[in-house]
Amino acid sequence: MKSKRFEVLSQRPVNQDGYVKEWVEEGFIAMESPQDPKPSLKIEGGRIVELDGKRREDFDLIDTFIANYGIVFDGAQQAMAMDSKDIANMMLTPSVPREEIVKICKSITPAKMLEVVSSMNVVEMMQCMQKMRARRTMANQAHVTNVNDNPVQIAADAAEGALRGFAEEETTVAVARYAPLNAISLLVGSQCGRPGVLTQCSLEEATELELGMRGFTAYAETISVYGTEDVFTDGDDTPWSKGFLASAYASRGLKMRFTSGTGSEVQMGQAEGKSMLYLEIRCLYITKGAGVQGIQNGSVSCIGIPAAVPSGIRAVLAENLVAAMLDLECASSNDQTFSHSDLRRTARTLMQFAPGTDFICSGYSSTPNYDNMFAGSNWDAEDYDDWTVIQRDLKVNGGLIPAREEEVVAVRNKAARALQALFKALGLPPITDQEVEAATYANGSKDMPPRDKVADIKAAQDLLNRGVTGVDFVKGLAKEGHPDVAQSVLNLLKQKISGDYLQTSAIFDRDFNVISAINNRNDYQGVGTGYRVEGEDWERIKDIPNAIDPRDI
Amino acid sequence: MANELEALIRQIVSEIEGAKGNTTQYSAPHTSSTPNTTVVDRVVTIKDYPIAKKHPEWIDLGQGRDLSHITMDNVMAGHITMDDLKISPSILKAQGQIAKAGGRDQIELNFSRAAEMTKVSDKRLLEMYNALRPYRSSKQELLDIASELDGLGAPICANFVREAAENYERRKKLKGDN
Known about the structure:
Number of strands of chain B: 0
Helix content of chain B: 40-55%
Number of helices of chain A: 24
Protein name (chain A): Propanediol dehydratase large subunit PduC
Radius of gyration of chain B: 18 Å
Largest sheet of chain B: none
Protein name (chain B): Propanediol dehydratase
Radius of gyration of chain A: 23 Å
Domain Diol/glycerol dehydratase large subunit (chain A): 1-551
Organism (chain B): Veillonella rogosae JCM 15642
Strand content of chain A: 5-15%
Distance between the termini of chain A: 54 Å
Structural class of chain B: mainly alpha
Shape of chain B: globular
Strand order of the largest sheet of chain A: 6-5-4-11
Number of domains of chain B: 2
Pfam families (chain B): Dehydratase_SU
Shape of chain A: globular
Oligomer: heterodimer
């Protein structure tokens, strides 16, 4: 006989997910591997000669880079001598200021950092995240893509996403040569939805920088770092090449962050028997050492691996927390799809949603799942109302605001028309009125008429060959009747001169006022302090369109 | 007091380097533009942030133009190109000081490298990055890049590349090692 109960359970979405037992030798262990190094630090003659049990002559590239740049010597001996649980408890205690914790964290080694976070459960970690997040006000980031790289749809989805509250929007390509058009569509669309939204296009490293230099994008994120030397090399970089690239971005006035995450080393088969979290912590020290302001982490595109092992989702929260402890901006993933279960994907997100991070998702798909070219997101356009209702239920700011249909339709139309005008001005393949209409009301690419992709790709290449830049977008938009959008694009380009948004956790409001960890420093120190959902924010969060007024009944 | 003095000296040195660099720039913003000589003549702190709002006068686009020059009218009249929308070494240094004042020492070092890199053309900078990727360059090729950077007045970047060359040799990441 088969149990009917078990038959029902076996059909539940959660049982369509894959799970594995721990396997220490191959790194299938989230965070407390017996093979993880024990903390140690020896400084002689002004340099680190031993780091976490390894002598300098045995250092690989990552150890060397961390030893040379990642650890502040001043106060290091005292910090290393502290009990790891004491550090965790200081962090957990609201009245101990964030600055005091950051000062300790800057001077401890990766293995020590691992000990500190491994001593905590998820509720303690969430409380610490609330305090350690760099920017006082939390935010969110969207993915804006579609299977056909349809530019009009990208513009419309970007506008809607911006209206709904995303502070950053990221696109990528189905076909690489479409990149310039995707970047332009995202830029124009975002500014139609809400001026000041930052945009990026995820591409191969050198190409991504080139688009930024030309003013097609405002920032970059897909600059990956890894926790073992072999995987770093397989990723076609070294800590020095990535550090050089980071400075190159800053030299052009462009905001950037690195990307890393638990599970990437296991996925590439070279985890050296270390826990996923230990290897990720090394990535965060590389980021810190390179002087990069922030990180996108939380397993990101490797989420299937930590999610399959015990305590894996806890490790993902721990890696976000370590980023914050190192005073880095944290775009905390909640990104790639990892589960068939709505319960599981929600539980995973609550870890960052409830305490708030600099960007809770990195990103949230502004399209249906089938249009997400980052292999699907944990959150899609279809979940917009779930997200805003959960915000309302918990009185939490998850970075989004409820939107009215008429407002959404209006900004989608504005974005589609602005892009139509800019394509005309730049001599790109025309966008028809029919396409504008379709994008205005579309849910996904299935609702869009097909475009001549060959002509688009040819035009995209030609655009680069002609040396078209962001200034040409400003001119084209203004000339073709969209002066307000032109002004926003110009305002965004202008930010590269003053460099204010190079500082940690920087975003802009609709008037291009910069909001960063410098002028919006997280000052949480217990009940009644730090960011509170109140005033205008609360009015907007609670105002969902489908709530009835009981007085009307 | 010692810190303030140090910051001031750093600032002055950076200004001298910045001015020197502009004369050897691959793609100077304007052939007739004056070198970027705005001196932020005091210690920059968090109170000076954001620079665009609090110190627009620190931003020198050359030819006596400041941030207020970047207007729609000037764009439409063709007076503004992408070259005008670039950060200067002195502003990067100032942002570095703000980062340091906020307790972020490594960001200051990153911005110091960045300030030097403003002297390198887009094309050459991308080439240098690619040369630093694993198995791309011989040790000598990397040392040549370091010398080139020294010649451009970019000693921090030059030493960074030298450090990479030595470590790549030790860990077998040079051309032919794979």
